[in-house]
Amino acid sequence: MLCATVAVQAAENWPQWRGPTLDGLSGEKNLPVRWSTTQNVTWKLSLPAWSGSTPIVWGDRIFLNVAEDLKMQAGDNLHLWCVDRARGTVLWKRPLGGGNHREQKQNMSSPSPVTDGTHVYAMTGTGILKGFDFKGQELWARDIQREYGRFGLNWGYASSPLLYQDALFVQVLHGMKTDDPSYLLRIDKNTGKTVWKVERPTNAVQESPDAYTTPALVQNGSATEVVISGGDVVTGHDPATGKELWRFDGLNPSRHGAHRIVASPVVAGGVIIAPSRQNPLIALRPGGRGDVTQSHKLWQFSRGPDVPTPVSDGTHVFVVTDNGVSYALDAKTGATVWGPSRLKSGTYSASPVLADGRVYVTNEDGMTSVFTAGASFELLAENPLNDYTLSSPAVSEGQIFIRTAKHLFAIGARR
């Protein structure tokens, strides 16, 4: 079962974008609450450019998708870095191809790597997907665009792969710049070969088919389902076959043409939380089959995020909007527990993480606000790193890793 698989990792590693349980939660205790560019910093590593990609941590290794300077027009300008966690030095770099460029605020390094503790898998916004061992030996390589057609998202591809058991699940939800269908892939993590490819049609129009989300997993009894959000709908899929099991068509009831989705679905306390473009944020109960639009919606919230993915401990859902307004919602009913509560002024693109009864969220100026994860709002700290930041924090063994445009920071001492 999913819970049994991830529980042993919860206090140690951060193997995927949303952490060991795929939901932004960490089991760590006594994490740092206050820091600055000079206070409580174990080390910092210089980086060549900004990225939306989150650091991935396993044991003594940290993995980063890295874009080189945009002025570098020829050759490989996208790489996977492996960093020594103890010293903050680069152990090796491996090419992920060329073609890096800017799309709005992101570049082509946005997808986060994933690891199973033995191998690491990296995807780029240009569609290159590669597998490596921890020594940097390339195991296999794929070019998704070359094989299945060019990505047609308005602002470039940014979804991270989902690693579950022996497979990588890769979604391509697009439509603004292509007539090709959206699809979901299951790729064997050991061979790199496609196990299945299923199309995912929707009635979304103009830019609304585009989604920058990452798949989630939900437990339905003894079965695990892959949850995909985008193109106006949320769908559940059988991981063995890709078959669509259920569909919720309510993320864009008016069929607005600019309702692309960035924030990813998250599962907490047996509830699927599915953001859209601010309104609505939907909560669904799992277990349905076919059209569940009317039958499985638990509640909705009209002041959701656009970019940051919410986080939930199963009791409360913590929402941070793009302009730094936070809310706590009752996870079962959607009732507002507190909020709106204003965080430090700025733009918020990174997603919040929750650990040790606290929520950590970083804005684009590199300011991380820390507030209590409970029934009342209490701001505990505001921690400046004074640099452009899109990446979400990663938590592992007592440390918090924050990636800005110029540096990767290791905050706190390892335990």
Explained architecture:
The protein has a 5-stranded mixed beta sheet with strand order 1-28-29-30-31, with no helix packed on it. Strands 15-16-17-18-22 form a 5-stranded mixed beta sheet, with no helix packed on it. It has a 4-stranded antiparallel beta sheet with strand order 2-34-33-32, with no helix packed on it. It has 415 residues and is mostly beta strands. The model is unreliable at 1-11 (pLDDT under 50). It is built from 2 helices and 34 strands. The relative contact order is 0.14. The radius of gyration is 20 Å and the shape is globular. It has helices spanning 2-7, 144-148, and strands spanning 25-26, 41-46, 56-58, 61-67, 78-84, 89-95, 114-115, 119-123, 128-133, 138-143, 162-164, 167-172, 183-188, 194-199, 216-220, 223-230, 233-237, 244-248, 266-268, 271-274, 281-284, 290-291, 297-301, 311-312, 316-320, 325-330, 336-342, 353-355, 358-362, 367-372, 379-384, 394-396, 399-403, 407-411.
